Amino acid sequence: MAKVAISKLEPPVDEDKVYEAVKNAVDLLGGIEKFVKPGEKVLIKPNLVRPAPPPTTTDRRVIRAVALLVKEAGGKPIIGEGTAAMTLLWREEMDSDDVLFLTGMYKIAEEVGGEVVPFDKEGKFYGRIVDVPGGVVLRKANIAEIALEVDKIIPVPVMKCSMEGGGVTLCIKDLHALVDPYTDRLKFHRSDLWQKLVDIVKVVRDKIKLCVIDGIKAMEGDGPIYGDPVDMNVILAGDDPVATDAIGSLVMGFDDPLREIGPIAIAHADGLGIGDPSKIEVVGAKIEDVRKKLKKASCEILAGIFPNIVFIEGGCCRACKAWIKFTLYALKGEGVLDKEVPKRVGKLVFIAGVDPSLPEDPKELLKIGLPIVFGDCALYSTKSTIFWQLREKAVYIPGCPPFAVGNQARLIKKAMGLPITKREAWGFLPTYTH
Asked: 301 pLDDT exceeds 90?
């Protein structure tokens, strides 16, 4: 039977309390010596999606605690990460080595006597193409070399709701960073994303004996970037990544991980772990004592969240909806949606999906605002109407789904007549350094 331990922290939370909470959770599973043997190289894999503080990223105090435990067991702690493709290519435009530095990982490694290994640096991904055993979406994958070389891998995600990760970003989603951000990470990012995440787990499942979830400060709502922080003050540790995610989702307020969380259901069905809570032993604090009903993420595009927009959809999958929302969050953060859109174009009219319901005369769209044809399905479906009749009066954004949020925001701003003078505002916090 899979086992998951829950360790509760009492505020105020400091570094010593975090270490004790992590150690307590691992001890409830049998102690770190059960999972790490002397001389073993252990990859500690946090969630450092961008250079920002928790809950966008894993709390450095949790990463430090896991690294110390590995060291105490005689293992060699290696903190490794491949930051988000958006961070690499469009948002902050910095590589994983930069993000590891800015989030304090080199300081932790120096303190505990470990090592830091970025999965990519200066545009190069350090990986190796391997066969995926039983792969459904990924039959071959370019996997970070360090993940293939180490003896053990400990996922250390932060607890977040997720628009596209099946509802949550926990251990399974944390391993998405193991694949090449310039190829496999960008591909299969639609309704096939959940199966792709599970296929990645298949490559390294035998190395994952211990997982730790940072639930000190969780993210509710539209994670993994644009959600809101919630104080949970909890640490979870488990001996099965699927079971750890299942209990983590219950702590976050979900009721049935096998029905609500796609990657958990698929991984459970594929025999990679136990996703049925009734077959998981929970030790330590009780779920009901730490559980909070977090606001769930949604791919739906609601005008109440984003002012001055209209969304016209045909058969539109959740991926295009999610990436429209990412683009809108970027524009909203700059004040473009509420200040510039109404006085320059009226509204932004996003058109997505197969066969969207359009007015008989596409020129009617111009009376509403600026038409934005988003994604390959919409481009194909409207090529004989919007493209031929409106031409340069509309914005065309290709992709399945379109990922380049920064470029997309700039295209829209340019079409509105706004100057493009600097990198888009993403809330980057340069003070989050060591």
From this structure: no
